[in-house]
Design a protein that fits this description.
The chain is α/β, with parallel strands linked by helices and 583 residues long. The protein is built from 15 helices and 15 strands. Strand 13 and strand 14 form a beta hairpin. Helix 10 packs across helix 12 and helix 13 runs antiparallel to helix 14. The protein is globular. The N and C termini lie far apart (104 Å). The C terminus is likely disordered.
């Protein structure tokens, strides 16, 4: 009896195994059939063309042909904004075929494994050397040795690395200065002094690495956002790891006066026996300032208190890959604090990046660009960018409102010693029914993206409370910027200025102003939400009403575009004369 039961169990188990085997075979045949059908037709005649992102809610059972997958991703990319007409971003969007090939070559190389890719690691180190020389770093202590720095995934990582090195440098000094043990210092929270015009990378540093920010508000109208050196350094104390000098803030492109900050830091350190250093955040300016004519005052390692410099290769360094760079004045008492020695990959190498594994695409492409352009090429490119910025700036400066007043107030650093950025705001002396952010939305109907923004920020010091960025302007004030990247040619700059005139004329002609479109649309959406909350309307009905309001707002924007195009035919003589004068 027992044997009979065992045989029965074995038979059932065998049948189950056979059934599973058949299921796998059927699944394989189904996959082969699907692949065969895919290969026999085009993507648009296949079932895959009917899929939406909502259908792909899990990893599919069967894969698609490579060309189909490429088409799916290309269609997603097609819905992005036109990157060449985006004047808000600092990120480079143009490349050469050879550059893209180099990027693909680097994508297959993991720089973490120096024993397998020693030549690629040497290339990375060579790029660091080239940039260190560009920024006038002191010669390495060993003749023929490498300078100290690293390629990163972006300038955010570069800032974090510099901040960490400075923090550990401060800890060592603080322990010696006050005669403390290392564990006693680790419980003391240091600070860093920086302008409120900092980039988001620094808020990550404050939060992630437990450093208190001391924020200094520059003024907008007089100093154009450049922080006052005396005011900045006056906030330092014995717990300050460094002051940050921003070489081209992202709001209007103005450089903090690194040269003046260095002089103030020198006096501070000599008076108190401290060792406060300077980090130069050259996310944008690191690849602009060295190539400008006339040259700005010294901003780099020529200044004795500059300990580190960071920059973005994918901005004005012209790389198409997300790339950052950090260069230290020296390894001793700086980079040595964040270096990690790795031996388990068949050799020994130091890593001073936050992420261990990373592709070589960034260093490869940066090396390509440095060799491709050379100093002369970068200088010519920067000259073109500054010239196009001056063209747009002068055009906006000359534009007049029907009242006879200037339409704009220029808020950038002008033609020299700043980034190629045009920053302005609608003249606050004119009572307009639209603001700079409305202007952004109206311009987007012409395919141009010009970023408008309010001049407030969520203060890290005060629990995220909204505060003004600047000492002389309210947080609710607004402005806009036009970043003149290398792809913004003179012909495109001319088209943008024409679109400014067309859109402004259309906005002026709206009886209740552009804000009325927002307020009416928002009122409909708010009323629908309130009705749903009170039970007078279902959630789906409220959503439909809100969607209809949004569509109505979109239709209104299209009307603005049409009205602008109508006013542009024929072109007003006055506008052409202004354009000619600027040329």
């Amino acid at each position: 009896m027992a044997s009979s039961e065992e045989d029965k169990d074995k038979l059932i188990a065998s049948l189950k195994a056979e059934a599973e085997s058949l299921k796998k075979s059927v699944s394989i045949l189904q996959g082969a059939l699907i692949r065969s059908q895919d290969l026999s037709t085009t993507y648009y005649a296949s079932k895959h063309s009917q899929l939406t992102k909502h259908d792909i809610h899990d990893i599919p059972e069967y894969g698609m042909p490579a060309r189909y997958v490429k088409e799916v991703i290309e269609q997603i990319h097609l819905c992005d904004f036109r990157p060449r007409l985006n004047t808000s971003s600092y990120v480079n969007v143009v490349s050469e075929p050879e550059e893209r090939q180099v990027a693909i070559l680097g994508a297959e190389v993991n720089l973490a494994d120096a024993s397998v890719y020693p030549a690629s690691v040497k290339l990375h180190d060579h790029v660091v050397d080239l940039l260190a020389k560009l920024w006038n770093a002191p010669e390495p202590p060993i003749k023929g040795g490498h300078y100290c720095g690293a390629g990163t995934v972006g300038s955010t990582e570069a800032c974090l690395l510099a901040g960490l090195a400075l923090k550990f440098r401060w800890r060592k000094w603080y322990a010696e200065f006050y005669g403390l043990e290392e564990d006693q210092v680790s419980g003391i929270k240091p600070n860093i002094v920086i302008s409120t015009a900092y980039q988001a990378a620094w808020e990550k540093f404050f939060r992630y690495f437990d450093v208190t920010p001391i924020l200094v508000h520059p003024n907008l109208l007089q100093d154009k956002m450049a922080v006052d050196a005396k005011k900045l350094v006056s906030h330092c104390n014995e717990k300050t790891i460094a002051v940050v000098a921003i070489l081209g803030n992202h709001y209007n492109g103005v450089y903090d006066p690194v040269w003046d900050i260095d002089a103030e830091v020198q006096k501070l350190n000599e008076a108190n026996g401290w060792q406060v250093g300077i980090h130069v955040d050259g996310a944008s300016g690191g690849f602009i300032a060295p190539f400008q004519t006339p040259s700005p005052p010294p901003f780099d390692f020529r200044l004795p208190n500059v300990m580190s410099i960071s920059s973005s290769g994918h901005k004005f360094g012209e790389s198409i890959c997300g790339t950052g760079w950090v260069v230290f004045r020296e390894r001793k008492n700086l980079a040595e604090h964040i270096a990690v020695s790795v031996t388990y990959l068949g050799g020994q190498c130091d890593s001073i990046t936050l992420n261990f594994s990373r592709p070589a695409s960034g260093p490869y492409v940066q090396y390509y660009k440095l060799l491709r352009l050379g100093r002369n090429g970068y200088s010519s490119k920067v000259s073109n960018q500054m010239s196009n910025a001056a063209y747009i700036r002068n055009f906006l400066r000359e534009l007049k409102h029907p009242s006879g007043k200037p339409r704009f107030q220029i808020l950038d650093g002008g033609d020299d010693a700043c980034l190629p950025v045009v920053a302005a705001r609608l003249n606050p002396d004119i009572e307009l029914t639209y603001d700079d952010i409305d202007l952004q939305h109206a311009l987007s109907a012409t395919h141009w993206y010009v970023s408008g923004y309010n001049l407030g920020f969520e203060s890290f010091e005060h629990g995220g409370k909204m505060e003004s960025l600047f000492s002389d302007v309210d947080a609710h004030a607004s402005m806009f910027r036009v970043v003149c990247k290398s792809n913004l040619t003179r012909s495109l700059a001319e088209d943008l200025t024409e679109k400014f005139v067309e859109v402004l004329s259309a906005l002026d002609s709206l009886k209740d102003g552009y804000k009325s479109l927002h307020s009416l649309s928002q009122a409909v959406q708010d009323e629908a939400a309130a009705a749903a909350s009170a039970g007078r309307m279902s959630i789906s009905e409220a959503s439909s009403a809100a969607l209809a309001a949004g569509k109505w707002l979109g239709k209104a924007r299209e009307d603005i575009k049409a009205r602008a195009e109508e006013k542009a035919r024929p072109r007003p003589t006055r506008r052409l004369s202004v354009s000619h004068a600027v040329c």
